[in-house]
Amino acid sequence: MQFWHELAAEMSREWFAANKQRYETVWVEPITALLEGVARELAPAYRPLKLGQPKALRIYRDVRFSADKTPYRPTSPR
User: Fold this and answer.
1) Quick one: DSSP state of residue 60?
2) Of 16, 33, 65, 77, which sits 20 to 30 A from 27 (CA to CA)?
3) Which of 17-21, 47-51, 70-74 has the highest mean pLDDT?
4) How far apart are CA 27 and CA 37, in angstroms?
5) Distance (Å, rounded) from C-alpha 57 to C-alpha 59?
6) Is the pLDDT of residue 32 over 60?
7) What local confidence, expressed as pLDDT, does residue 18 receive?
8) Distance between alpha carbon 66 and the CA centroid of its chain, in Å?
9) pLDDT-based confidence at 12, cuts 50/70/90?
10) Burial of 73 (0-12, 13-18, 19+ CB in 10 A)
């Protein structure tokens, strides 16, 4: 959780670029592994359908039409 607190405090592209590998290691890899495990467990219930590859939400925000111009999501969307 420390990463998210630091990101919320910094909110700069330079900080994120310097910490991108950390983001991949502490957030993307573990959450992807968790989602893949859940998908494996759910697959039998959806046997006729093939589930898509699970993915974590992207961290970058689309600020084109937003009043909030911060470049990253500091917390998960509601």
Assistant:
1) B
2) 65
3) 17-21
4) 16
5) 6
6) yes
7) 95
8) 20
9) confident
10) middle
Query: Within 13 Å, how many C-alpha atoms sit on residue 76's CB side?
Result: 6
Instruction: Delimit the domains of the chain by residue range.
Output: 1-78
Residues 6 or more apart whose CB falls under 8 angstroms from that of 52 comprise none
**C-alpha of 74 from chain center:** 10
For the residues 5-9, what does the mean pLDDT come to? 88
The sign one gets for the Cα dihedral 54, 68, 19, 3 is negative
C-alpha span between 13 and 59 (Å, rounded) = 12
Q: 48 pLDDT exceeds 90?
A: no
